[in-house]
Amino acid sequence: MAVTIAIIVWFLAASVALVRPKVGVALIWPAIWLYPNTALYGTLPLNVRLDDLWMVFMFVLAVFYARGRSGTGPVFWLAVVWVFSLVLGDFMGFFVTGGFAWQMLVKSGLKSLYVPMTVYILTVFLRDDRDILNHLKAMGLAAAAAGILGIAMVYFPTALKMFLIPGVQVIGFQVYTALELIEAGEIGARRAQGAVGTMTLAALLLSASLMALCMVIYYIRQWDRWLFAVIALVCLTGLGYTATRGAIGGLVGAILWGMLFTRRRGTLIAIGLMGAAILVVQGGVLERVLLRVVGEAGARETPFMEGLAKRFAIWGTFADHFSPIYLFTGMGMSSVMHIQKATAHNSYLGAFVYAGLFGVAVMAAIIVRVWKLAKRLRMAADAFSQGLGVYLAMFLVGMMLFGMVVEMFQHAGAMQMLFAATVLAERRLAQVREAGALPVPGPLPSELSPGYAIAQ
Predict the structure, then answer these.
(1) β-bridge partners, 174
(2) What is the pLDDT of residues 413-424, one digit of tens each?
(3) Contact 302, 254 (CB under 8 A)
(4) Is 171 helix (H, G, I), strand (E, B) or coil?
(5) Angle between helix 284-293 and helix 303-320 axes, rounded to 10 deg
(6) Which of 126, 375, 428, 437 has the maximal Cβ count within 10 Å?
(7) pLDDT reading at 437 higher than 70
(8) Which of 31, 128, 92, 111 is nearest to 355 (CA)?
(9) How far is it, in rounded angstroms, from Cα 82 to Cα 173?
(10) Any long-range contacts for 438-444 (C-beta under 8 Å, 24+ apart)?
(11) Which pLDDT score is estimated for 39?
């Protein structure tokens, strides 16, 4: 019955998207972040889900709306090269290791295609500042709903088990990626500690929290400011409930960067102090975070030190098993998981081990591209553009810090959010430059990305 309802809802949403494609674009985020994992579980090859089909549907719709002309640009091709680096590493690792479940390799590659598909969709359908703002709201509301769902799962795990992965198996065509295998194991451990969620949930709440905070600080419309304030509060609370040390450290680092290098550092400092005061008074979320860092009284080793020791052991294993194949193409995350039964737990080591020097160069190119775009947008005269630029920079800082303990720059979900933010910033920068409000020389993104001109 539930599957039938889900299919009917999917086709109704698709019918609406055919008429109003921007609604379909906004539905991408709740489709991915709020998907009940039991729906169609094990029914389609490679465990393809309705949210996967929605991404493909919106991509095909975007190609149709582009009317045969290119909707691509430098950001799109950078996303394509990122996917290629991961697929190449997995492909080489498949032969170097003597082979493993080939379905895992295929699904990892297909999941990575979320990133360039998202870039293309946003490039074609988002036209002006109203579209950008509405899409930010849609992303924020979907993330807030995911945060509320995560908190509810701490207290009502049985009632909401439809959102949990039913099991971990590789049987025939049914398969999980390496990161999904890791995350499925984390869910039970985190719930036992009164926390919830995985790296994906922590990453999306980190992104939405920073985005909403920047809109509260920089955007001037009162109603929208209140909406983003609620989104920020919910997402920050949800992030606390994940008790994910890397994500919380990324949030703190991003806010500290904002306090030092942004124009409205005073407001950011005030918000930071208010948040710290609420944590001290409320106590529940703070207790969960401290439990993950300090541990229970009398414990021989704190969870923080225990986690750090495990990561050092994993990193040492990779150093001991160094192979010349790492140098150029890497071995891919799937093969490393197959051999070591663990992943690198570090974006920078992961870039080298999974994709070799090529992967390191791609990751560096992404960081430089995003940072330059954020810097240019922060120099704009209007507050909305400055807020978008600050958000992009803070999210990049948060990802780089979070990436010290997990593979943020090899994770399709995290990279999808980073590239989505990059596209929104690029589109806004094009509008500002066309209006002559930005004293920065250089080609317009509209000149580099034909999709912008098409959308006009």
Answers:
(1) 171
(2) 999 999 999 999
(3) no
(4) strand
(5) 40
(6) 428
(7) no
(8) 92
(9) 26
(10) 438/376, 438/379, 438/380, 438/381, 438/385, 439/379, 440/376, 440/379, 442/376
(11) 67
Nearest to 96 by CA among 374, 382, 324: 324
Q: Would you call 303 helix, strand, or coil by DSSP?
A: helix
Task: Give the C-alpha separation, 141 to 395, whole Å.
Answer: 18
Rounded to whole angstroms, the Cα distance separating 235 from 208 reads 7
Per residue in 108-133, pLDDT tens?
888 899 999 999 999 999 988 899 99
Among 285-289, 317-321, 359-363, 388-392, which stretch is predicted with the lowest mean pLDDT? 285-289
Rounded Cα gap, residues 366 and 392, in angstroms: 12
The sign of the dihedral angle between the CA atoms of 294, 295, 299, 300 is negative
Question: So where are the chain's domains?
Answer: 2-455
From residue 72, alpha-carbon distances to 62, 77, 120, 127, 143 in Å are 11, 7, 6, 14, 27
43 vs 295 pLDDT, higher one: 43
For 128-176, how does the pLDDT look when each residue is reduced to its tens digit (9 = 90+)?
889 999 999 999 999 999 999 888 877 776 666 666 666 544 333 344 5
Tokens of 130: 């109203």
Cβ burial 311-325 (10 Å sphere, 16+ → b, else e): beebeeebeeeeeeb
> Shortest CA distance to 392 belongs to which of 159, 218, 154?
218
Of 143, 134, 148, 168, the closest CA to residue 24 belongs to 134
The secondary structure of residue 159, as a DSSP letter, is T
What is the Cα–Cα distance from 453 to 70, expressed in whole angstroms? 10
